[in-house]
Amino acid sequence: MQLSFNNDSVFSLRDLKEGQTGVIHHLNLPEDLACRLMELGFLPGMEVTAAKSAPGGDPRVFRVDGAEIALRLETAAQLLLFPLPLQAVK
């Protein structure tokens, strides 16, 4: 299922380092899995932050819409993000 915004600089959810945040661009997954993740809050336009991971690094925990959800890296690689715009420094 492809749901997206227009943007050229996308990267995968898997690429986020702990504490980094991005905005979901689109889900490049089969429709049933994409729908399930969207029910959990992984919708295009939503901010997602990388949190802790298991000792081996897989699965990883991501924060989205006030929830913490663990995803396997294989699945996280199929959620594409674009970076948050840089905030102006005062």
Which properties best describe this structure?
globular, 90 residues, SH3 type barrels
Q: Number of DSSP helices?
A: 2
Helix content: 10-25%
Please state the structural category. Answer: alpha+beta
List low-pLDDT spans: 1-7, 86-90
CATH top level class name = Mainly Beta
Largest sheet: 6 strands, antiparallel
Mean pLDDT: 85
Determine the oligomeric state from the structure. Answer: single chain
Radius of gyration: 13 Å
The strand order across the widest sheet is 1-6-2-3-4-5
Fourth-tier CATH superfamily name: Ferrous iron transport protein A (FeoA)
Number of domains: 1
H-E order: EEHEEEHE
**CATH topology name:** SH3 type barrels
Q: Beta fraction of the residues?
A: 25-35%
Label the overall shape: globular
Distance between the termini: 41 Å
CATH architecture: Roll
Tally the beta strands: 6
